[in-house]
C-alpha cells in the first residue's frame, strides 16, 4: 500500500471530491500563509493567535468562493445578451459584487473574531483588507500557474 502511494501508481484516478479537497486545502494554507505574513510584517494587520488565523483563512476561503459563485451567476445572466448595455451592466455588476463582498467579508470577520483580528488603516481598515485579499488571490493564482505548468 505505502509503495503504491510513494510510486504514485494511481495518479490521475482521484475523484472530483478528492481533487476539490486538495485544491481548497492548499488554498486555505496559502491564505493562512499570506495572512500570517501580513500579521508579522505589517502593523495594519493584527491577528491575535495562529489558531485564529487558521479559522480566518477557512472562513475567508469559504466567503471568497461564495463571492465568485455569485459573481459568475450574475455574469451569466448578462452573457446571454450580446448588446453593449448588457456588457456594461456585466462589468458594473462584477465590480460592484467584488467590492461590496469585501465589505461584507470584513464585517463577517469582525463579527466572528472581534478584536482578535484587526485590519487598520485608511477607511477603517477596508483598504488594508483589500490589499491582503489581493495578495491572497495573487498567491493562489501563482500556485495554480505553477501547478498547471507542471502537467
Could you describe the 3D structure shown?
The protein has 151 residues and is mainly alpha-helical. It has one domain (2-149). It contains five helices and two strands. The chain has a two-stranded antiparallel sheet with strand order 1-2. The longest helix is centred in the middle third of the chain and has 30 residues, at 50-79. The radius of gyration is 19 Å and the shape is globular. The chain starts with a helix and ends with a helix. The model has no long low-confidence stretch (mean pLDDT 88).
Label this structure with key terms.
single chain; 151 residues; mainly alpha; two-stranded antiparallel ribbon; 77% helix; globular
Element-level helix/strand string: HHEHHEH
Beta strands, count: 2
- Morphology call: globular
What's the tally of helices? 5
Distance between the termini: 25 Å
Lateral strand order in the biggest sheet:
1-2
In terms of structural class, how would the helical and strand content be classed? mainly alpha
User: How would a textbook summarize the main sheet?
Assistant: 2 strands, antiparallel
Q: pLDDT average, as an integer?
A: 88
Q: Can you tell me the number of structural domains?
A: 1
What low-confidence regions span 5 or more consecutive residues with pLDDT below 50?
none
Helix content: over 70%
The share of residues in extended strands comes to: under 5%
In terms of quaternary structure, the protein is single chain
Give Rg in angstroms: 19 Å
Amino acid at each position: 500500500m505505502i509503495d503504491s502511494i510513494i510510486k504514485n501508481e494511481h495518479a490521475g484516478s482521484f475523484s472530483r471530491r478528492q481533487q476539490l479537497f486538495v485544491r481548497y486545502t492548499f488554498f486555505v494554507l496559502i491564505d493562512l500563509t499570506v495572512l500570517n505574513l501580513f500579521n508579522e510584517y505589517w502593523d495594519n494587520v493584527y491577528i491575535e493567535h495562529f489558531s485564529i488565523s487558521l479559522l480566518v483563512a477557512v472562513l475567508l476561503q469559504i466567503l471568497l468562493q461564495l463571492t465568485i459563485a455569485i459573481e459568475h451567476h450574475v455574469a451569466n445572466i448578462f452573457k446571454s445578451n450580446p448588446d453593449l448595455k448588457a456588457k456594461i451592466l456585466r462589468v458594473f455588476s462584477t465590480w460592484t459584487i467584488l467590492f461590496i463582498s469585501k465589505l461584507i467579508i470584513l464585517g463577517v470577520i469582525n463579527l466572528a473574531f472581534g478584536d482578535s483580528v484587526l485590519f487598520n488603516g485608511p477607511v477603517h481598515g477596508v483598504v488594508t483588507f483589500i490589499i491582503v485579499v489581493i495578495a491572497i488571490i495573487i498567491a493562489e493564482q501563482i500556485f495554480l500557474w505553477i501547478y498547471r505548468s507542471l502537467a
